[in-house]
């Protein structure tokens, strides 16, 4: 059971590192049991976030665009 908890914590850390910089991501839960830990405003159409999981972000790929924008700003 400890291995499972460690794996869940690791997955949450990876999610935070990968998705945390997305310009549409408002917050990421610190609860490793949360199945939809990411609060995203891209698909809600307003400032109220909806909860999504990491698979949604991997499909969406918006976090990659944000990363590229940040790198372009740094090189200016
Ligand atoms: S679903 Fe897309 S826009 Fe929303 S936080 Fe994930 S990568 Fe960003």
Total discrete domains: 1
Largest sheet: 3 strands, antiparallel
Q: What is the radius of gyration?
A: 14 Å
Report the end-to-end length measured between terminal Cα atoms.
49 Å
Secondary-structure content class: alpha+beta
Instruction: Give the helix proportion (percent range).
Output: 40-55%
Biggest sheet, spatial arrangement of strands: 1-2-3
Low-confidence stretches: none
Strand content: 5-15%
Shape: globular
Taking all residues together, what is the mean pLDDT? Answer: 91
What ligands can be seen in this structure?
iron/sulfur cluster
Order of helices and strands: HEEEHH
Question: How many β strands by DSSP?
Answer: 3
Helix count from the secondary structure assignment: 3
How would you characterize the overall build of this protein?
The chain is α+β, with helices and mostly antiparallel strands and 76 residues long. The chain has one domain. 51% of the residues lie in helices and 13% in strands. The protein has a three-stranded antiparallel sheet. The longest helix is centred in the first third of the chain and has 18 residues, at 2-19. The structure holds iron/sulfur cluster.
Keywords, please?
76 residues; alpha+beta; three-stranded antiparallel sheet; 13% strand; globular; binds iron/sulfur cluster
